[in-house]
Amino acid sequence: MLVDKIGNIRYVYGHTGLFLEPAQGYSGATNILKMARQKLRRDLNKTLHLAITRQTTSSSAIIQIKRNGETMSVLIRVIPLLKKALKGQDDDFYLVIFEKKADLKVETERSGFMLESANSQSEQRLLTLITDEIEVTRTKLSDLKSEFENTQLELEVSRNKLHSVKLNIDMAETELQTLRNKISGSKEERQLLSDGQQSSITDKEVVVSVQQTQIEEQRPFGEELATIKNELSMATEALEQKKNAFEKMNQTFKATSGELSFMERQEKTESENGPDFEPTTQVANMAENVVEPIFPKTTGLNFGSESELLDNNIEKSELRFKDAAEFQAAANHGYRHDNGIKSVYIPEGVDTIKRSMFYKCTQLEKVSFPNSLKFIEGFAFYGCEKLENINLDTCKVLEVIGTSTFEGCVSMVELRLPDSLIEIEEAAFLGCRTMETIAFQENCQLEILGSHVFKDCEKLKQISLPDQIKHIGISCFYGCRSLTKVRLPKELETLGEYAFFGCEALTEIEQTNKQLLKQPGFSVGLPEGIKIL
Q1: Are 446 and 423 in contact (CB under 8 A)?
Q2: I want to staple 60 with a disulfide (CB 3.0 to 4.6 A). Which of 76, 302, 381, 461 is the partner?
Q3: How far is it, in rounded angstroms, from Cα 447 to Cα 391?
Q4: pLDDT digits (tens, 9 = 90+) for 73-123
């Protein structure tokens, strides 16, 4: 029989009634694994899997089956016909050959019966020789079978080691991508700093230019003020001279009349009501005004009180946006490595949180998501170490959570996901070591869990996945040490290798899709002693 890599029959040659029987229903009518007789099914599945994974010819052990009261020996051989070796072939095919072998035990019994009927002594000796040769051959076959089984075990161990190497390569690639993203983020930050410095230099030049212009404009006023000061000084000297003259007149008048002098009456009036005119004081004040700068204060330099600084810090720690347009404008530069932000309120109307927007905001504790949110791009909240709870179940149209979105949020305890969610990309919650609860909505439409999504969530104990999930990626729950029980979805089609590797407390996996057990590599990386319900 000629079959493809999943066992669907493409061509049949010869009589197959001894080995195959029609399968019930429509789905298995053309699949060789479903049509194989019960006695042959396990060895056929194993031989076909070895040929597909190794891309070389594989053979089964000799299988003893009974047919109409007779014992028959069967050997199954699978030969790959690969598209890369044959021109004009679009897919890989595999030639499955069923070979009938003569049963050694039956032949021996027949030979013994014939020899016992012979009376000659030479025929008896010949029977003994044949029997000894059969025993030797049987012993050799047993040894070969043992060697073959040992070889199979060694190959299986090698295959597991190869998968471990592959897993390490995948992890290294993930780390490399993370480093590349970090380098890209650093370049962007450096560019932003360079642009900021250039802008500061330009602003400083503008301020200096404005100050020079103001100085030039004020120079005529300074000269005019200096002239007024000189005039006031001359007026003061004139007043002093008049004062001296009045004192002399007052003394003369006092000596002649004996009444209060003019100056004494003036001093008495000033002591009671205050001075009517203080030219000397006014001149001093005007002189001081000439020296005072008339430039306005720069609003950017605020040397306020300690309470004002505290209020500014409080405002900075709470990030709010008045509308979606303001949020999208802020997304162009993002808030990477901003350790002053403690809470973020995203307004309604926002449908996308841009890539790396809040990358490593290590003091961020709370995020309020809008109902209109549809996509969260990769690395959006990467490394937000103080972020505890993520409540996304109010985001009724959220479809995708991107790569490494919440990776490294080591304080996250609870995660709530909406029923509109379709895909969680790889490493989205990797390293959330304190996460204990993952809550899915009752009608959650989630279909894809990428590779490494919940890797190293060490405190996660139980999880009941939505029935619509079709794919669980490689190492999805790798290292979830506290996980004790898992219920696999009804519609699950593929389970990635090492999906539950390192789940030391896991004792049972509940699943209803029996076809999943036949998936090549289904049990690779499962903990030892795991119970499949």
Answers
A1: yes
A2: 76
A3: 20
A4: 889 999 998 887 777 777 888 999 998 876 545 455 555 555 455 445 666
